[in-house]
Design goal:
- It is a single chain.
- The chain has 273 residues and is α+β, with helices and mostly antiparallel strands.
- It is built from eleven helices and eight strands.
- It has helices at 3-6, 95-101, 116-130, 138-157, 163-178, 185-191, 196-207, 211-229, 234-240, 246-257, 261-272; strands spanning 8-17, 21-25, 32-46, 49-54, 57-61, 67-71, 85-93, 109-111.
- Strands 1, 2, 3, 4, 5, 6, 7 and 8 form an eight-stranded antiparallel beta sheet that branches.
- Helix 5 crosses helix 7, helix 5 runs parallel beside helix 8 and helix 6 crosses helix 7 (196-207).
- The longest helix has 20 residues, at 138-157.
- It starts with a helix and ends with a helix.
- Residues 1-5 have low confidence and may be disordered.
Amino acid sequence: MSVEQSCQVLTAGFSFHRKPYYFSQPEGVKNYLFRLQTDGRCRARVDDQMTFIESGDLLLFHPTEPYELKIDNEENGAGNSLVESGDYHIFFTGDWADEWWHKKKRPTRIKVELTESLLSLFRQIVLEQRRIANPFPEIPSYYMRILCLEIDRLLSEHPTTTQTSYLAYQIKNYIVENASTLFKLEDVASSIGISVSRAVHLFKEAFDTSIMQYTLDIRLNMARERIIFSPMSLEHVAESSGFNSYTYFHRVFKARFGMSPREFRSIHREQLL
């Protein structure tokens, strides 16, 4: 069986609604459906109940699940006529998709951080589907598999969907995405609109480590890979990995790996030869 048959993307797109919209398919959508809310809000049927769907809500539907979507000014508050809702949606099918779906129990809705890495997967699948002539039709299938596995990773990293755990993972994502630059605790906290003390508490409670220690771990791992595989000078490695001085970088690197950055590079370069 070919790759595109085992996990075939049937249709994919991005919709932005400024007018009321309603869709209902009580008998199910017949194929698997991912829907990622990126802007505004709407309502959708989740676990047999019409539920508010907001930015960052990812919906996962099995082919037999009832699907109902409603977008109108009721979702935006009484007296407000604004209608605004944006989403990516992908319909797909195939034996690989069946096997993936049945590997574990999957909630209909999960809260996700709208990171560039996640959004780029949705964008790329949409762009591939828009190609008029595509000599490599298996490419959308590979992207779809990656997206499914990325969702598995999100589910494993987000065992609960409470507001506090969601905020903690937002902090974690901010650190991962910005570790190569200099930032302060105030920057982390303000990125999700909470106080520094609450950010520190939530992160420690969720991951049993401090924000700054986790940041240091990310930066050291980043520097380690660059020392081994890039031609950068050690000073440039330190700077590009988020360290504001080479002296500090040298000290913490040696404490973590038991040797200086120069010794580390020498040993690992020899192993690559």
